[in-house]
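Hi there, hope your week has been kind to you so far. No rush at all, and the record is pasted right below.
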Amino acid sequence: LYQKKTIPGKGIGMVATVPIPLGSLIITEQPLFTLPHVASHTLFAMKATVLHEVSKLSKDQQKAFLNLHNAQVEPVSKLPPFVSIVRTNAFGLGVNAVRSGVFDECSRFNHSCAPNAHFAWCEPTLTMHIHATRDIAEGDEITISYLSSKLCVSSHQVRQRDLLARYGFLCKCTVCAATGQDLASSDCRRSEIGRLTEEVGDGILIATNPARALKYCREILRLRDVEVQDAEKPREYYDAFQICVAHGDLARASAFMKLQLKWKEIYEGEVAEAAEMRRRMQRPEEHRLYQAVSRRWKSQTRYAREEKSEGFEEWLW
């Protein structure tokens, strides 16, 4: 599906050798080694752990590790090369990760603020999966995002500062390469995503004006689509699910949970919590927020509409 190629201004990257449709599994890979999450490690402990883990690798694996990019954002005296390679290339393994992993192939996918792929850790198989979040044309570079959800909606300047400090590069993706009004408009859209997300997330709006909260969820989805933040979109469907459950609307809650599961499976493949999500889809009234605020939208699950049915979007939102 892809090959390693030299990307001007980026070093080594991964380029599609065939068209890759949305949702395709691009790679599944076991880590060269794992260690306690990089962010929680002291330098002394991390150095000892990295040296120990590298010593257990085969010669070919050691070579693969040493060939990974080393951003070396701090002097060698403060950040030894082996540790710097880990800091540059390690992935957090799952949501709220307590461990990080270094990979031969996955660690070579470059960053974009408008990525066309998404990585997800699969705990049952102890492997990292990367799926296409958009249709990828033959010859296009396959990119992922290195940024947290919060940084994804930050301004161009903030993103650049973070990437430079952590990885030693200034992003030149299509978003960051824009100039003038195009760049300003992108920053404005991302700022609006952040503002609306906070409005929905603080809970007050859900209680006082659920219709507006749903409207905000829909607008966030629209803005994320424009800003190519596809992998973040399932979260909005879950927020919408909670809004409906809190006001007794089981029909729409079921539909929103079905959409969340659908898009998580497209972007991540095997979803660890899929069974729980299907249970919520079938019996949303078992959620802790059921009618926690009101019964104003009270409805039954049996009245949930199908996504392809006529008038679905108007009914849903």
In short: The radius of gyration is 21 Å. The chain has a mean pLDDT of 95. The chain has twelve helices and ten strands. Residues 67 and 104 are 9 Å apart (CA to CA).
